């Protein structure tokens, strides 16, 4: 089915459902794009030591002010949901270096059942998952949404396995 653009409000009494094999994609590394990956469940697959790069946030396109739709070039609101099907060993989810993260990721340590939330620093532009202290175990989920110019909002439940008290933040500078 082709993409459709609406310029006015759309009301759906029973909601919209994205279902089927086209709603998921398996990633190992490389760049994700708004056109190919936004709104899908992005399965982190067999190559868990890759580098996944988020698209540069574009809020200055026509769509940022006049809502002309999919062809506007604006990426505000684009959401990328990463689901870990294989435990990470050295996986980075990063921005272009200009865009930064806000929000938080809750790390759940399966060793002592402790939950620790981490908030990125003002200059953090990469999340690193190592399978132990910074998590990325099977079942971890991280959602990243283009919120504003140079600002990605992050929320996640990240499973890690490490000795008690050694859980570490996923956030860093590239």
Number of DSSP strand runs: 12
Q: Count every helix, treating DSSP H or I runs of 4 or more residues as helices.
A: 2
Sketch the major β-sheet.
Answer: 7 strands, mixed
Order of adjacent strands in the largest pleated sheet: 1-3-5-10-11-7-8
Rg to the nearest angstrom?
A: 17 Å
Which structural class best describes the helix and strand composition?
Answer: mainly beta
Give the terminus-to-terminus CA distance.
39 Å
* Percent of residues in helices: under 10%
Please render the helix and strand layout as text.
Blueprint: E1 24-27, E2 30-31, H1 34-37, E3 41-44, E4 51-53, H2 63-66, E5 79-84, E6 91-94, E7 100-109, E8 115-118, E9 126-129, E10 141-148, E11 151-160, E12 171-172
Short description:
The chain has helices at 34-37, 63-66; strands at residues 24-27, 30-31, 41-44, 51-53, 79-84, 91-94, 100-109, 115-118, 126-129, 141-148, 151-160, 171-172.
Describe the structure.
It is a single chain. The protein has helices spanning 34-37, 63-66, and strands at residues 24-27, 30-31, 41-44, 51-53, 79-84, 91-94, 100-109, 115-118, 126-129, 141-148, 151-160, 171-172. The mean pLDDT is 87. The chain has 174 residues and is mainly beta. The protein has one domain (24-59, 77-172). It starts with 23 loop residues before the first strand and ends with a strand.
């Amino acid at each position: 089915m082709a993409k459709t653009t609406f310029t006015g409000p759309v009301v759906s009494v029973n909601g919209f459902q994205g279902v089927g094999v086209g709603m998921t994609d398996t990633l190992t590394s490389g760049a994700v794009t708004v056109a190919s990956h936004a709104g899908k469940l992005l399965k982190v697959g067999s190559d868990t030591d890759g580098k996944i790069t988020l698209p540069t946030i574009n809020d200055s396109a026509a769509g940022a002010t006049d809502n002309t739709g999919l062809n506007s070039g604006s990426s505000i609101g684009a959401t990328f949901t990463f689901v870990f099907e294989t435990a990470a060993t050295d996986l980075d989810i990063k921005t272009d270096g200009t865009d930064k993260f806000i929000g938080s990721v809750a790390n759940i340590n399966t060793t002592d059942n402790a939950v620790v939330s981490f908030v990125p620093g003002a200059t953090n532009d990469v999340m690193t998952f190592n399978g132990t202290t910074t998590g990325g175990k099977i079942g971890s989920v991280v959602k990243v949404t283009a919120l504003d110019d140079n600002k990605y909002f992050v929320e996640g439940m990240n499973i890690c396995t490490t000795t008690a008290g050694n859980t570490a933040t996923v956030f860093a500078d590239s």
